[in-house]
Amino acid sequence: MKKILKRLAIGVAVFLVLGTSAVAIAVVARENRTFDAPYPELRASKDPAVIERGRYLVTGPAHCTECHGAVGDHAAERHLVGGLAFEVPIGTVYARNITPDVATGIGRYTDPEIARVLRYGVHPSGRAVLPFMPFTDMTDEDLTAVISYLRSRPAIDHHVPSNDFNLLGRAAKAFLLEPTGPKHPVRARVTPGPTAEYGEYLATTVANCNGCHTRRSLRTGAPEGVAFAGGMTVESHEATPKKFITPNLTPDPETGHIYAWSEDAFVARFKAGVATGSPMPWQAFARMTDDDLRALYRYLRSLPPARLGQEL
Question: Which domain holds residue 125?
Answer without folding.
Answer: 48-175
